[in-house]
Amino acid sequence: MFRKILIANRGEIAVRILRACHEMGIPTVCVFSEVDRTALHIRLADEAYLIGPASSRESYLRIDKLIDVARRSGCDAIHPGYGFLAENPALPRACADAGITFIGPSPETMETMGSKTAGKQLARRADVPTVPGHDEPIDNPAEAQAIARDMGYPVVLKAVAGGGGKGMRVVPEDEAFASCWRDASSEALNAFGDARVFLEKYLLSPRHIEIQVFADAHGRVVSLGERECSIQRRHQKVIEEAPSTVVTPELRRKMGDAAVRLARAGGYVNAGTIEFLVDEDLNFYFLEVNTRLQVEHPVTEQVTGLDLVKLQIAIAAGHRLPFAWESISPRGHAMEVRIYAEDPDNNFFPCPGKIVARRIATGPGIRLDEGVYRGWTVPIEYDPLLSKLIAWGNSREETMARLRRALDEYTITGIRTNVSLFRRILAEPEFLRGEIHTKWLDELLALPHPPATPPRPGTEHAAAIAAAYWESLQPSSSSPSSQTPQSAPSRWKTEGRRTQLDPLP
Amino acid sequence: MKFEVHLDSGTGRTKHVVDLEKEDASYKVFLDGQPVDANVILAAPNAVSVILNGTAFEIHIAPSLDGTYKLQTGPHEFQADIRDPRTWRGRKQSELEAEGRQQIIAPMPGRVIRLLVNVGDEVEAGQGLVVVEAMKMQNEIRSPKKGKVERLQANVGQNVNAGDVLCVVF
User: Fold this and answer.
1) Distance in angstroms (rounded) separating the CA atoms of residues A370 and A340
2) Which pLDDT band, with edges at 50, 70 and 90, does A59 fall under?
3) Cα first-last separation, chain A
4) DSSP-derived pairing of the beta strands B147-152 and B69-73
5) Domain carrying residue A34
6) Cβ contact (<8 Å) for A459 and B57?
7) What ipTM goes with this model?
8) Do A149 and A277 sit in the same domain of this protein?
9) What is the C-alpha to C-alpha distance for residues B65 and B95, in angstroms, rounded to an integer?
10) Nearest by CB to B82, which of A461, A467, A503?
11) For B50-64, what is each residue's pLDDT tens digit?
């Protein structure tokens, strides 16, 4: 097993990985940018090193600095988490050069499977169905438009190096092609430094269902079942659950087999996710491979009872996957919501800031993966994910009841969060019936807000009493003489300034 | 201690007078002049627990930049503006309203993303005029006085520097 592991990440995932390491008795080395000195992963780390200024380009994305810290601190493995460098083959290459184990797939499989076009070609070879489309990146917009016309609209343009919905445009009709092309390629260039895009047929109301696979270095590849990730806002996952309401044991086996075939064909090792689109007739089409741990991995952990991070570390250390997992089937139901510091009443604008106070959700069937605490200021420089709240239970109904209950307990004071969005989704009859697709949430959000549930009688009176009581506790309240001139400007001064000011022309 | 509490629930505004009389370790509470069966304590930082006629509420309180409080209980939110009639301490501009012709300036560099008023509109003190986005945050610039929008110098999409005049209210 490893002597010491460097965690090349921040936020909740750094804390998640650190916890797995500590459970395995492996000391951790964490890194931080100048604004992350007080971050939770640094508070919990065994060793911590500053790697640069706030901008992730100069800190969390600097491979040279990470390798340097790993060397100096005597780490023999690096876990990349998700995001940042997790799918950049340059990191495993640099690790190999430095004699450090990268906890993840090889740089070669990252390139062949992580790229959307190469992944699609591989899927064809492995006899995994794909969405009709054009695999090759296309340089010439006119040529691309001709292909789109042949295929029939709507089509979707996607960045070759893309992910998370960046560099992606749906083209509804021929007239919109030129502007969509321009947007997709410039966004791709900005986000990934690679302007190349390809195009495929756009399915109308598909589900996004993904299969978690694990492969060891001894040729064993297993599927750990599916995650339903159709609740998305602008292509960003918002709620994930396992199992999916539409996946039967037979479909699970078929999708699992396809995912395993694909992983085998690509010589995959470690944790990976094969994403599929599933149409209304339950045909599934390969979408892409995520060559890393997913944000939503906890839902799989809750229904399989496995610790995916510990498995990743064990596989990277050369251990074998045990036999029994080849026929794994989910037990109970799990659902995750991603709580962000953003304002749902203001177009989901990020609103980081200081967490003045908070009440944590806990109790039966609740898990909270997070990197925040009371008194911490959420920095503006990074993704404003605060917490992943995961509920599990015997049935989907019990899981949702627990999630609703936990959302009522979860309170953060000082910054706004998107918690009200989940309350709304968890009250929608279609969601409760599992009748969802990838555009369901965007369609819901385009509708007017439903009337809020009326507060319990007395709420407003209680609020007035609480506000007055709070005010009575404030030091300045009982001593008006302590008021400073700044808080109560002299009327003489105000009048003097006013008379001296020239009236505007 | 007597407080005038102005509550805004987003759908309606109400006013209550709350009188807290210290009695041993707790308080006797009068709401709008009437004694009420209420027990109120600070349960945790920024969390006030109120048991009103046997119904338990936990109200989470955070100060806002404009001197009001944001109250949160379950899915419900209120904005509270509090005045203490005895000391007549007003919260910020609420007591002392600006006078005369006011130039509304951008407090920070940013980009104008929305105009909330038109030239000629009558505005109240504290009403939002222009929304400026800075550091990915949207900030509503409010009117310091009741009056009429005389001029709007900001355009949507325009970059502004701290101190730039956005509009004029008279």
Assistant:
1) 11
2) very high
3) 78
4) unpaired
5) 5-103
6) yes
7) 0.77
8) no
9) 16
10) A467
11) 999 999 999 999 988
